[in-house]
Design brief:
With 257 residues, this protein is an alpha/beta fold. The protein has helices at residues 43-50, 75-78, 95-105, 110-123, 139-151, 169-186, 197-203, 221-226, 233-242; strands at residues 5-14, 17-27, 32-36, 58-63, 66-67, 81-85, 157-161, 189-193, 206-211, 214-220. 35% of the residues lie in helices and 24% in strands. It is globular and about 55 Å long. The mean pLDDT is 90. Residues 14-15, 19, 37, 39-45 line the site of adenosine-5'-triphosphate (ATP). InterPro entries: AAA+_ATPase (IPR003593), ABC_SmlMolc_Importer (IPR050093), ABC_transporter-like_ATP-bd (IPR003439), ABC_transporter-like_CS (IPR017871), P-loop_NTPase (IPR027417). GO terms for molecular function: ATP binding.
Amino acid sequence: MNPLIELKNITYQAHNKNILSIPDFQIQDGDFLGIMGPNGAGKSTLLKVMALLDSPNRGEILYRGQEIANGIPSLDLRRKFSVALQQSLLLEGTVYQNIAIGLKLRKVPKSVIKEKVNVWMEQFQISHLAKKNAHFLSGGEAQRVNLARAMIVEPEILFLDEPFSALDFPTKIKLMDDFKAIINSAGTTTVFVSHDLMEINYLTNHLAIIVNGEVKQYGPTQRVLESPNSATSPFLNKWKKFYPMSFKQEKPLSLMR
Ligand SMILES: Nc1ncnc2c1ncn2[C@@H]1O[C@H](COP(=O)(O)OP(=O)(O)OP(=O)(O)O)[C@@H](O)[C@H]1O
């Protein structure tokens, strides 16, 4: 079976500097892929290239085995992708209006929009905020709205860049628990950039470690974390000092004491 997305011989440069160099990388259908690495390694750039938000200087991007001509996706293809960033970038208007926007742009009938917004507000436990101005939400509430807005269009692939990193710890673990259950039930392929080993360990099935613009290690998350190679151990071993607990962690984080 073809991977959902494949990158081939990708080079991304800025100001004559190589930011990314990716000979071959694949995202499999249904996977929850983590991307981790030192500051400035190229994680966000890789996410933007995979999400077709930015074009590489060279190389090919394939979607389900089909090359995307000139790296420019059709509107149809673009609509299969959703992106949520650290800053939730909510629009002027209510929570309801923010979550409805993707369906409105797709000209979905109002009655269907209402039904779906209600379902996704319930899933993210924000139904009580429906009429609230989105600019007056707490960080955790805003990120729930952001994720509901990304999920309501039922994307084939969801790209997340540090969505939990600005949240305080209790808010973060509650949202991560809820989000994990939602993604497990929806089965959405997800790509997740994070700085935080706890988030990566808890959420992802596969992990790519990127250093200096290159994927230096890729595999099942537990295997990568337990057996870093010579290129990734300087980065991962620093983390392990601060996160020495067993790497296998299936219990909801909010139940941990
Ligand atoms: N358009 C650009 N012009 C110049 N330099 C860029 C551009 N985009 C990215 N870079 C540089 O490329 C490198 C990788 O940036 P990127 O944001 O992808 O890294 P990152 O791993 O996500 O970093 P961080 O962990 O700090 O968020 C950095 O050195 C950054 O300064």
